[in-house]
Design a protein that fits this description.
The chain has 428 residues and is an alpha+beta fold. It has one domain (3-425): monomeric porin ompg (Porin). 16% of the residues lie in helices and 51% in strands. The chain has 7 helices and 24 strands. The chain has helices at 3-18, 31-35, 49-52, 82-87, 95-108, 145-153, 309-321; strands spanning 65-72, 74-77, 111-126, 129-143, 165-166, 171-187, 195-214, 219-222, 225-230, 233-235, 244-257, 260-271, 274-275, 281-283, 285-290, 293-298, 302-303, 327-337, 340-349, 360-371, 374-383, 386-397, 400-411, 414-425. A 14-stranded antiparallel barrel has the order 1-3-4-6-7-11-12-18-19-20-21-22-23-24. Helix 5 runs antiparallel to helix 6 (145-153). The longest helix is centred in the N-terminal third of the chain and has 16 residues, at 3-18. It starts with a helix and ends with a strand. Mean pLDDT is 84; it is low at 1-26.
Length: 428
C-alpha cells in the first residue's frame, strides 16, 4: 500500500469514528438547560428565555441584567456506536465482532453520521428585554455498506476473497447558520389569579454556507487493485457569508401560581428563511490510487451549471428542503421545596427542515441545591424509540456563574454524546 493509500484509509476510518452528531434546541445558550435534558420551557430566565420561551421575561424572578457565553458541541454515530468503539479502544477488534457490526450496518442500509454544534458569543437580558446570537454548525453523512465492509475487513472483505466494491450512497451534507434573536415579555395586569405573561421573539437567520457531497461512481477494484474516487462537491458562494436569510417569530405564554408554572411556546410560528440557489458552485473531486501510485483531479470551484443535470436537480432540492419548521413546546415547573425544582417538557416539531433528531420529545428534569451555590441537575427524555440522559453541575458566586453539562443519547440505532459550557454574569 502506498503512502497516499494509507493516508486515505486513515482519513476514512477517522471520519467513521468522529463525524459530529448532536441536536440541541436552536439557539440554546444554556448548559443548565442541557443538564436538565432540555426540559426548560417553564424554567428559563434572563438570557435563556430567547431560546426557550420569551414570555418568562414578563414573570417575577428575572435579573435586572444578565450576560452569557456558551459552547455546546457533540459527537456520535450509528448503528456502530461510540460505545461500541470505546469497548475496543487500543485493541484489535475480533473478527466475530466486526462481522456483527457489519450485519448491523447492512440491516440499517449504511452507517449514519450527523450532528450540530451551537456557539453563542453573546446573550444578554435587560429587564424584560433579551437578545442572543447563535451560530449553528450542522452535518449529516452516510457511509454505504460496501465502504463500511472495506473499513472493517480491508479489500478482501468479510469473505477473505478480493472483490470489487462500489460506494453508491456515499454522501455528506453540512451547513452553517447564524440566528439573531430579540425577545420581550410582558405581564398581563388584568389577571387576578397568579401571574400571566406573554412574549415574542423576533429572529433573523442568515445562511452562512451550505455544502453537499454525493458519490458519482467511486469504487474499489481487485484487479487491478485500485481505489477510484468520484465524489463531486456543491457549495454556496464562498465569497460571502450571506447565502440565504429570513425572519422568524416565536410566540409564548407563561402562567405562574405560587410554586407552579405552566408554559407554552410555538417556535418558528412563522419563518421566511430560504437558501439562495442561484449562485451555487461545483467542484469535481476525482482521484485514482493504485499499487503504482495515484492521480487526482481537484479543479477550481466552477458554476453549478458544469455539473450533470441530475446532480444539479438533487442538490438544489436539498437546499430548498433545508427550511425552518414550527415546533410546539409545553412545559411545567414546580418548586414546592426550597432547594428542588422539577420540570417536564413535551415538544412536537412539524415537518422536516434544518433541525436534526426526533420530531417528538417528552422528558423530566430536576435541579437540586443541597449546597445553595452548587446546583446539581439531571434529566431524562424520551426521543422517538430511544432515550437521552443528561446531567450537570453549576458554580454560582453571586454575579459570576459557571454551568457545565453532559449528555448521552441512544435512539434510532444511534449512540451520541455531548457536553455544554456556559459562563454568565448576573443570571443563569
Amino acid at each position: 500500500m502506498t503512502r497516499i493509500q494509507r493516508s486515505a484509509a486513515r482519513l476514512a476510518a477517522f471520519g467513521l469514528i468522529l463525524a459530529p452528531v448532536l441536536a440541541h434546541a436552536q439557539g440554546n445558550v444554556s448548559a443548565a438547560a442541557t443538564a436538565m435534558g432540555g426540559n426548560y420551557t417553564a424554567v428559563a430566565r434572563n438570557f435563556n428565555a430567547v431560546a426557550w420561551n420569551p414570555a418568562n421575561l414578563g414573570l417575577p424572578g428575572n435579573s435586572r441584567f444578565s450576560l452569557a457565553f456558551s459552547f455546546l458541541p457533540g459527537v456520535g454515530t450509528g448503528p456502530i456506536t461510540l460505545k461500541d468503539l470505546k469497548e475496543y479502544d487500543g485493541v484489535v477488534v475480533p473478527e466475530s465482532v466486526r462481522q456483527a457490526w457489519l450485519q448491523r450496518v447492512t440491516d440499517n442500509g449504511g452507517q449514519n453520521l450527523s450532528g450540530d454544534i451551537n456557539l453563542t458569543p453573546i446573550a444578554l437580558s435587560i429587564g424584560a428585554l433579551a437578545f442572543s446570537t447563535t451560530t449553528t454548525i450542522r452535518a449529516a453523512g452516510d457511509v454505504p455498506v460496501a465502504l463500511a465492509e472495506v473499513l472493517l475487513f480491508g479489500n478482501a472483505g468479510r469473505t477473505g476473497v478480493p472483490l470489487d466494491y462500489t460506494f453508491a450512497d456515499l454522501a455528506l451534507d453540512a451547513n452553517v447558520t447564524t440566528t439573531f434573536g430579540l425577545s420581550y415579555g410582558e405581564s398581563l395586569p388584568f389577571v387576578t389569579f397568579g401571574d400571566l405573561a406573554v412574549g415574542l421573539t423576533a429572529k433573523y437567520t442568515v445562511g452562512n454556507v451550505a455544502m453537499s457531497m454525493r458519490d458519482n461512481g467511486s469504487a474499489l477494484t481487485s484487479n487491478p487493485l485500485q481505489i477510484l474516487i468520484d465524489a463531486p462537491i456543491v457549495v454556496t458562494d464562498t465569497s460571502t457569508w450571506n447565502n440565504g436569510s429570513g425572519l422568524g417569530l416565536d410566540v409564548g405564554a407563561s402562567w405562574q401560581v405560587g410554586t407552579l408554572r405552566a408554559s407554552a411556546v410555538v417556535h418558528d410560528l412563522f419563518s421566511s428563511f430560504a437558501w439562495k440557489t442561484d449562485d451555487l458552485y461545483y467542484m469535481p473531486v476525482q482521484a485514482t490510487f493504485g499499487q503504482e501510485g495515484g492521480t487526482s483531479q481537484l479543479e477550481d470551484i466552477l458554476p453549478l451549471s458544469g455539473a450533470s443535470t441530475a446532480l444539479q436537480s438533487e442538490l438544489r432540492s436539498l437546499l430548498d428542503e433545508s427550511k425552518v419548521t414550527p415546533t410546539l413546546a409545553l412545559g411545567l415547573a414546580w418548586t414546592g421545596f426550597k432547594r428542588i425544582t422539577i420540570a417536564a417538557d413535551l415538544r412536537q416539531r412539524f415537518g422536516d427542515g434544518l433541525e436534526l433528531g426526533s420530531k417528538t420529545e417528552f422528558g423530566v428534569g430536576a435541579e437540586l441545591r443541597l449546597i445553595p451555590f452548587i446546583p446539581l441537575r439531571a434529566g431524562v427524555t424520551s426521543i422517538g424509540n430511544g432515550m437521552r440522559y443528561s446531567g450537570g453541575v453549576g458554580l454560582e458566586f453571586g454575579l459570576v456563574n459557571m454551568q457545565a453539562a453532559a449528555m448521552v443519547m441512544a435512539a434510532e440505532g444511534r449512540n451520541d454524546a455531548g457536553f455544554g459550557l456556559t459562563m454568565s454574569l448576573g443570571g443563569r
